[in-house]
Amino acid sequence: MAATSTTNQDRRAMWFTRLASASRAALACSIVAYTTLYGPATLRRLVAFPAFSYLTATLIVTNAALGDAVRGCCLVVFATIQTVCPAMFLFWFIGPAKFSHITTAVTVALASVVVVLPSSTHLLAKKIALGQIVIIYVVGFIGGAHTDPLMHPLHVAATTALGAAASLIATLLPFPRLASLQVKRKSKSVVENMTERLSLMVKAILAEDRTMAAASISRAQFLSSSATKLLHSIKLYQESKQWEKFPLEICKMGWLSNSEKLEDLEMALNGMELALSKIPSYPIQNNPQNYQTLKHDLNTLENQITLSLKQANTYFPPSDSVTFPEINVDGNTATVINTLKSIQITPTSHQDLPNFFFIFCMKLLYKKTQVKTPIKFKEESKEKEIKNSTNKEKNRSTWVSSMNNQRVITALKCAISLGISVILGLIYNKENGFWGSLAVAVSIASNREPTFKVANIKVHGTMLGSIFGILSFVLFKKFLIGRLLCLLPWFVFTSFLQHSTMYGSAGGISAIVGALVVLGRTNYGSPKEFAFERMIETFIGISISVVVDIIFQPKRASKLVKIQLILSLQLLQKCINDSFCYESSTIMEKDLQGLRTQVIEVKKLIDEAEVEPNFLFLHPFHGDSHLKMFNSLSKMVGLLALNGEAMNNLKEGLWRKVGEKLEGDFEKFKEIMANGFVTFYENLRSSSLKSLKGDESKEDNCADIEMGEAQRIEVMDEIEKEKLINSFLQHLGEIVESKDGKSEEIILSLSAMAFCLNSLMKEMEEVGEAIRELVEWEKSSF
């Protein structure tokens, strides 16, 4: 019932969010429409390109909070200064009448390089600046001698400013949509999600049979996927919060509004979920007395964590620092968290490890919610600022050397696409020759995209919007208000379209703009002819961008994903080699963050490869095997992070004694894993990866894939693994029997390390199985 209630709440929240977003987008475009159609004559003459006002408003206001709109307005000012000022000087020096097809295309291409090449410029600013470049130079060339060299760029600036102002007003009316409030609401939803999952997982570990445990685990896994979406939403609002300093001070939030802190708690919950999946049998305690003691202790600990989460999320800290309130709970806390005695003294076999790991993760969750010392967010932010400023100075000093191939290629792709689109668009239809290049300008992306899918949905979206605009125009030919009212349901429809798997953001925005430029115009001739011409021009621009993208990036994601897997495996091997060394804990944390980034990149390439058509490749993309590898790699990242937490619980002096006792087990573990890596590299190299040539930057990184090569033995041999775990548990018992090891914290930490070792080897098996499955599948597909 709880899961069903959560689902209904999520569905209602989704509908409300979509409708609110559509309403604000409709309001922004209504402001533009009213201003350009009914505003003062002077203002209407100044805003000479209302279609670009609609486009600017749509780019800024879509799914935007107030902070996004404020940032968008600042980016509009930056983009306008970057483009309008040089254009005014160029037109004054040369004159629009002296431009030709070729010189216009070359000017647009060169100006686009200046805009796209800097890595520090925001993507929205680049899109707006490129759109302004197209309108300034192409429309200026179309106007010829009638184009005012100074007023024409100012008209473009005023047009852009109107769209930005409309988007800002739309986020303020009827009440401000604050990112800080959105984060606060979603943080509360995350806390509710976490507390419910915690309750379900405690019920699962205390279940009397596997059926009851499976039901609770299944519901917890469903809630885990919802938590991932909520955390992603909070991340999206983090940057917008920075632009809402004044409202943020009014709406002070608890410490759980920080996405990094939430991810920290999520790591502990994921560890508990992983432990439950490894428990061999239920109940975990056959002794009724021990079971009741365990039940009481875990339930009390659960109540403490739940109370801490709720208090932390509602406590409003001062702006400079945060001091968390003391948590008052009935009972003796020292007795409550001493749950180890209700199970047994030490684990005697690998089947006992999941129980200990569950308690370790639950205590870790408790510790992360029981912070009682002041945390100086201001000091942390200063450290980040110092680090960022240092990096900026370093980047400035090595600006030329930092012009890596990818940035240059992106700039060249954009310049060539725009240049060719300008020429072909003007040749096809001089009057509307800027629509194709404008479609290319606003389509620039910061990362790789599935080329054919994005091109396809943009064409579909443009056609859908244009057809809807023509039909609305036919129904309300003589009633402008009626045509504009038709846009309201269209905004609602496209709001859902933007979040659909079929069209996404690119297709939804194309559909909005396609309808706006048809309905939001007067005295431009037949809308049917205009819509047809615009669709042809858009098709020309998108086709050119696809061809140029293929020329500059012939390697598709289905091939690049294997290179990315090798890079991830290399860094994973390095993290494993450093994971049991106390001195390298700082380096390990940095490498682990890099590994997390590499694994995320694997998922991006998998998603891209799955939606691309297969006709370009020698064989279809086998997504199942790649997803298995990604899932296992993600679990291994989490296990290494939790293993690091277990190491941090041991003081340096004690760790040296423990390390001496367990050094042989650690070295054996690294040897087993190294042999697994060698085999994985060879299998990947024997697949279609060997056909990849030319990507020198990544091939150089993949060249030394034999690092840490050990003598070839039977990889991931079950007997060797069992010997290793038994040896580790034997040494663990010896440590516990010594005077230094009688602490519950030590026993739990070492048991957690044993569980991580065992689970890492099992996940390596899963990776190996997925690679073998992929290789066999590729061989059979030829």
UniProtKB/TrEMBL annotation:
Membrane-spanning ranges: 21-41, 47-66, 73-93, 99-117, 129-147, 153-175, 457-475, 503-520, 532-552
Name of the protein described by the UniProt record: Integral membrane bound transporter domain-containing protein
Keywords: Cell membrane, Membrane, Transmembrane, Transmembrane helix
Matches recorded under PANTHER family: MULTIDRUG RESISTANCE PROTEIN MDTO, P-HYDROXYBENZOIC ACID EFFLUX PUMP SUBUNIT-RELATED
GO cellular component, one term: plasma membrane
Record keyword Cell membrane present: yes
Integral membrane bound transporter domain span: 421-548
Species for this entry: Cucumis sativus (Cucumber)
